[in-house]
C-alpha cells in the first residue's frame, strides 16, 4: 500500500521542530506501508528552487524549497499557494507512474487544503484528513474568514474519513463543522528508543521539569508563580526549564527570586530533552489548552509522574494519582499545593510501571497498526 502525505507542518531546513510529531507518525505508518511525504515550503533565504529527497526503508520525504518572488505580501502568498499545489500534483503524477497510490493524507490543513480535491478529480485518488491543530479548540476556527472556514469544512465533508489525536479534538471537529460521518482517534506516538526510564541519580532535591515553547498556551508564567509560593514552604527543589526562552520568562524568574532553583536549558535537540527528563523526578505542565500533549507521554515514558491541568483532553492520558495528578487550570494556588504534594508523596508513584504502560499504549507498532487498519477501511 502506497500512501502519499501532504503535511501542513513538518520538520525542514526552515524550521526543524515544526510538526516533529507528524514525522513520528510517518515513521509509524511506514512500518506497514510505503509512505511518500511531499513538503513544498517557501524559504526566503534562497534565490532559486531546491529539491531535497531523503529515503529510509519505506519512508520517502520530498522537499521543494522555493524562494519568495515578490515583496508584496499578498501576491507572494498567492504565488506560494499556486506553487505549492503545482509541486504536489507534479509529484503525485511522477509517483503514480512507479506505483499506484492507494490514498492521500492531508495532515493539518494549511496550504494543503485544496490538494485532496485536485487528486480526487485528476487521478481518482481518495483522501483522508488528519488533525491536531489547536485552531479548532482555541477560537481560531471561529475567527477565520467565512471563505476559508467554508473551504476547510468542505474538505472534511468530502474526505473519505478524518482522524484526530484525541477524543476531545475529534468531538470539536465533528461539532464545529457539523460532520455527519464518524472519525477515528489515533493518538500520538512516543519514541521509546529515546524516552524511557533511566534515572541513575539520587538527590535530596526534587527535580521538576517543564518542556514547551513558552507561549501563552503553556502558561509558564503561572507555573513559575506557583513555584515561588512553594519556595515559601520548601526550598529543596530544582526546575529544569527547556525551550526557547522569552525575556519575559527571564525577568519573571528574577522577580520571583527563583534563579537559584531554575536551570534554563533553552531549546534542545530531541535526544537532549529525553536525557533531561530522565534525570528529573516530576513533569509540570500548566497548559491552558491542548489537542493531545506529546510532552505528557514523553515524560511518562521516562517514568515521570505529571502535574497537569485538569482538561478534558489531559484526562485521556492521565489517571489521577496513578501516572500523575490533575490541577485546576490557571489556579496558581492549586498548582503550588500539587507541587508540594508531589514533593511529599513522590515515593507513592512507580516510575518503572508508568514508563512501561506508556510504552505499551503509544509505541510505533501500536500506532502504525491503527493507521494501517484505518487506511485499509477507506480503500475497501
Q: How many runs of DSSP E, i.e. beta strands?
A: 14
| N-to-C series of helices and strands | EHEEEHEHEHHEHEEHEHEHEHEEHHH
Residue ranges: pLDDT <50 for 5 or more in a row? none
Helix content: 25-40%
CATH homologous superfamily identity of the largest domain: Glycogen Phosphorylase B
- What class, by secondary structure content? alpha/beta
Query: Over all CA atoms, what is the radius of gyration?
Result: 22 Å
- Residue share in β-strands: 15-25%
Main sheet summary: 8 strands, mixed
Overall average residue pLDDT = 95
CATH domain class of the largest domain: Alpha Beta
Large-scale geometry:
globular
Tell me what you see in this structure:
Helix content is 40%, strand content 20%. By secondary structure, it is an alpha/beta fold. It has 2 domains: 2-189 and 363-379, Rossmann fold (3-Layer(aba) Sandwich), CATH 3.40.50; 206-362, Rossmann fold. The strands form 2 sheets. It has an 8-stranded mixed beta sheet with strand order 3-4-2-1-5-6-7-8, sandwiched between helices. The protein has a 6-stranded parallel beta sheet with strand order 11-10-9-12-13-14, with helices on both faces. The longest helix has 26 residues, at 73-98. The radius of gyration is 22 Å and the shape is globular. It starts with a strand and ends with a helix. 40% of the residues are buried. The model has no long low-confidence stretch (mean pLDDT 95).
Amino acid at each position: 500500500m502506497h500512501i502519499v502525505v501532504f503535511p501542513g507542518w513538518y520538520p525542514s531546513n526552515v524550521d526543524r521542530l515544526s510538526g516533529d510529531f507528524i514525522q513520528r507518525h510517518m515513521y509509524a505508518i511506514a512500518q506497514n506501508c510505503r509512505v511518500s511525504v511531499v513538503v513544498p515550503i517557501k524559504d526566503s533565504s534562497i534565490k532559486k528552487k531546491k529539491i531535497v529527497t531523503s529515503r529510509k526503508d519505506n519512508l520517502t520525504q520530498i522537499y521543494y524549497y522555493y524562494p519568495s518572488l515578490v515583496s508584496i505580501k499578498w501576491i507572494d502568498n498567492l504565488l506560494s499557494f499556486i506553487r505549492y499545489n503545482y509541486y504536489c500534483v507534479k509529484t503525485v503524477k511522477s509517483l503514480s507512474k512507479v506505483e499506484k497510490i492507494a490514498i492521500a493524507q492531508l495532515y493539518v490543513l494549511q496550504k494543503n487544503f485544496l490538494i485532496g480535491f485536485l487528486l480526487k478529480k485528476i487521478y481518482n485518488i481518495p483522501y483522508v484528513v488528519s488533525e491536531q491543530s489547536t485552531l479548532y479548540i482555541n477560537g481560531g476556527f471561529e475567527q477565520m474568514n467565512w471563505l476559508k472556514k467554508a473551504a476547510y469544512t468542505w474538505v472534511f465533508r468530502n474526505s473519505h474519513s478524518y482522524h484526530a489525536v484525541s477524543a476531545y479534538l475529534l468531538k470539536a471537529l465533528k461539532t464545529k463543522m457539523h460532520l455527519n460521518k464518524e472519525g477515528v482517534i489515533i493518538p500520538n506516538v512516543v519514541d521509546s528508543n529515546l524516552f524511557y526510564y533511566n534515572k541513575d541519580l539520587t538527590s535530596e532535591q526534587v527535580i521538576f521539569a517543564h518542556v514547551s515553547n513558552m507561549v501563552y498556551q503553556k502558561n509558564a508564567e503561572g507555573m513559575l508563580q506557583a513555584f515561588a509560593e512553594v519556595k515559601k514552604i520548601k526550598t529543596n527543589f530544582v526546575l529544569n526549564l527547556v525551550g526557547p526562552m522569552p525575556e519575559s520568562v527571564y525577568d519573571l524568574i528574577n522577580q520571583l527570586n527563583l534563579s537559584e532553583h531554575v536551570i534554563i536549558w533553552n531549546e534542545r535537540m530531541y535526544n537532549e530533552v529525553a536525557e533531561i527528563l530522565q534525570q528529573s523526578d516530576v513533569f509540570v505542565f500548566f497548559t491552558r489548552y491542548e489537542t493531545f500533549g506529546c510532552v505528557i507521554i514523553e515524560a511518562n515514558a521516562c517514568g515521570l509522574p505529571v502535574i497537569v491541568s485538569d482538561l478534558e483532553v489531559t484526562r485521556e492520558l492521565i489517571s489521577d494519582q496513578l501516572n500523575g495528578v490533575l490541577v485546576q487550570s490557571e489556579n496558581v494556588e492549586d498548582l503550588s499545593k500539587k507541587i508540594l504534594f508531589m514533593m511529599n508523596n513522590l515515593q507513592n508513584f512507580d516510575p518503572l510501571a508508568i514508563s512501561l504502560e506508556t510504552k505499551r499504549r503509544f509505541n510505533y507498532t501500536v500506532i502504525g497498526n491503527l493507521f494501517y487498519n484505518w487506511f485499509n477501511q477507506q480503500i475497501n
